[in-house]
Amino acid sequence: MVKKLFFTLLIGLTAFSCSKEEAQTVTKMEATISFLQGSAEKSSDEKNWVKLELNGKVSADEWVRTGSNSVAKITMWNASYFLVKSDTQVKVIELAEGQKFAMKVAKGTVDCSVEKLKTSGSYYKVMGPSMVAGVRGTEFTLATDSEKDIVSVNEGSVWIKRNVEADVPEEVVESGKSAIVYAADNEKLKKTAKTKEDWKIQVEEKKEIEKKLPKEEVNALKKTEIKEEKKQETKPETTTTKTETKEEEKKEVIENEMTKKQDEFQEKETKKVDEFVEQKSKEQEKLVKEKSKEIDDIMDSDLNTDDLLSKSKNKKKKKTQ
User: Fold this and answer.
1) How do residues 46-64 score in pLDDT, each as one tens digit?
2) pLDDT tens across 222-250, in order?
3) Cβ partners under 8 Å of residue 292, min gap 6
4) Which of 124, 149, 236, 248 could link 131 by a cystine bridge, Cβ 3.0 to 4.6 Å?
């Protein structure tokens, strides 16, 4: 009886343990490269990099980096995506079901567009070295370099706070406003801050923030507009379209060359006909002149003959008389 009870209890504990593990399991998702211009790569260790292609996949714990004059659009769920802009490196920290997403921006600039999150457990966080930004549905840009993080909100609102271990307050950045957090300020505040108020981040109008930045950084903060074409939606269509385009271009070149040759031939033949007509016209004109001269000569000859006959008759008359 004791053995039976112990065995039943062991099964119950095992079942409880399994169900607890299943409940805690979070299904990981993959994001998709839905637009790609230039070059982009991904890596799981920042050492071995693999080239990304259109419709390629990115998952949690993977790095993504872009080259110069490049941009990669990475779509997570429905209409939510982020653009990894030129010379940027990011890491997808979390990407799971239930609209849970977290990303670290090591350097460069990202544009984020997030649809309204559906549940209280959903979140979308973007972290720079000096700042953390979170949203529930908005469009914003986060740019970072070795000295500072900048957030600029295009639509909706974003909460931000300093990326430090201390208990710091959150600030809300509304549409049309921006904020800058300097790494040096964070280090200084770690030593001098006494209250939460000391950690507050100053939120300003975009124009005021832009006055403090170099022109190239202001340009980087502007939202990047991309024009996606149907041929970029799937890889097979892209390949087919390129092949068809090349064939059409080749066909057009051949047709243009044939048309050019036909025009040249027509021009030569027309020239030959014109020259022939001109030559015949000259010959005809010459012949007419020659014939006219012959006629004139004959007429002159006839006139002379008539004159001689007349003179002969006159002589005969005189003799008769």
Assistant:
1) 999 999 999 999 999 999 9
2) 777 666 554 444 444 444 455 666 677 77
3) none
4) 149
Q: Which CATH architecture has domain 26-228?
A: Sandwich (2.60)
Angstrom distances, CA of residue 154 to CA of 36, 137, 197, 249, 304: 23, 11, 27, 42, 114
- Domain extent listing, the chain: 26-228
Alpha-helix residue ranges (DSSP H) falling in the chain: 2-24, 183-192, 206-211, 215-221, 235-320
Between CA 134 and CA 123 the distance in angstroms is 7
Which tokens belong to 46?
């920042």
Average pLDDT score over residue span 123-132: 94
Residue type, 260: K
As a whole number of angstroms, the distance between CA 90 and CA 219 comes to 20
183 SS3 class:
helix
127 contacts 101 by C-beta, under 8 angstroms: no
What lies within 8 Å, CB to CB, of 74 at 6+ separation is 31, 32, 33, 34, 58, 64, 81, 82, 83, 84
User: pTM above 0.85?
Assistant: no
Cα 311 → chain centroid: 109
pLDDT given at position 9: 35
The answer to whether 99 and 124 are in contact (CB under 8 A) is yes
Report for 18-22, 105-109, 165-169: range of highest mean pLDDT: 105-109
- Looking at residue 231, what DSSP letter applies? G
CA-nearest of 82, 77, 122, 80 to 104 is 82
At 2, list the tokens: 């004791």
The number of beta carbons lying within 10 Å of the beta carbon of residue 63 is: 18
User: Residues 158, 141: contact at Cβ < 8 Å?
Assistant: no
Residue 56: which residues within 8 A CB-CB, separation 6 or more? Answer: 32, 33, 42
Cβ pair 145, 220 in contact under 8 A: no
* Both structure tokens of 195: 């209250």
